Amino acid sequence: MCQSLMSSNSNYNAYLHRKAGAAQVDVTPDTPQFLFGYPHCERTSTSVHDPLLASAIYLSDGQSGTLFVAVDVIFLTKEQVAEARGEISQQTGMPAEHIMITATHTHSGPITMSMLSNSEDRVVPKPDPTYLRKLINGIVDAGTQAFKYAQPAEVGLVVSEVHGLGTNRHNPAGPSIPELPVLVARSTQDQSLIGLMCICSMHPTVLHEDSTCISGDFPSLARQYLQSQEGLNDLVVVYHMGAAGNQSPRHVTRSNTLEEATRLGTILAVCVAFCVTLVKWASVVCK
C-alpha cells in the first residue's frame, strides 16, 4: 500500500536546481564470488539473477553541486569511500565532501570488507581484490558520468509511505519507518525524466543463505520494474537504505525466493511510480 504524505510545489518544500545528471554502471562480478550477509555460512555465487549497479545522481544550483551514489553491495569501508570520492573529485573538480556514497546492503552480493574475515568466522574469505577494483572503478565512472551528463533541470520531492515490505524485526507491532521520500529530476528542455532517488528503511533480506544467486534483492527488482514501465524506461534509480538496523521483511514474506523478492520489489516500485505522478514541478525556468 502506498500513501502520499506530501508533494512538492513552488511554495512548499520545492527545490529548483539549475542542473541535474544521472548515470548507472554495472558492477556485477565477472567471476564467482563469496556472497556475504549470513555469518558462518559457506556461500559462493553460481549465477547472476539481476545485475549489481552503481547508480548516481548529481544536483547543482549553479554555484555548487552534490553527488549521490548508491551501490548494490552489502558494505563499503571508509577507505573505499574515500578512494572513490577522491578519484571523482579529481576528475570533476567537485569537493570530495560534496559526494555521498552508500551501499544498498544486499545480502546476496560479494564480500567487500576484510574485517569480516576473522578468527571467529573461518568460512568467510578475504574479499577478491580484482572485484574490489572493479567496484571502485564503477562507483567513480557512475559519479563522473552523472556530473558530465548534467543538464538544465528542475527537481520535485514527494514523501509517501510504503507498507507491506516488512516490520520491526523483533516485534511486528514495534517501531518502524514506512516513510518513503522520492526525489525526481527532469529536464527543463523537454520534460524528460533524468533520474530519481529514494530512501527506504528496510533490510533487503528476502533472499537467505540457501540462495547462491547474485542479486540486489527487492530494491534491485523494484528498479527493474520501474525501468520497464512506459515513461520510466531506463530511468536511473538511486536507492538508499535508510535506518533499517532493526527492520526486516521476515514477518511479511511468504518464502525466501526470487519470486518473493520480486513481489516486494513490485510493491516498492508501484509506490515510487505513484510518487512520480504526484510531483508538482517548480515553475521557474533556469537560465
Automatic annotation (TrEMBL):
Enzyme kind, highest EC tier: hydrolase
GO molecular function, one term: N-acylsphingosine amidohydrolase activity
Documented EC number(s): 3.5.1.23
Top-level division of the source organism's lineage: Bacteria
Cross-referenced InterPro entries: NEUT/ALK_ceramidase_N
Keywords on record: Hydrolase
Neutral/alkaline non-lysosomal ceramidase N-terminal domain span: 20-230
Protein name: Neutral ceramidase
Organism of derivation: Adhaeretor mobilis
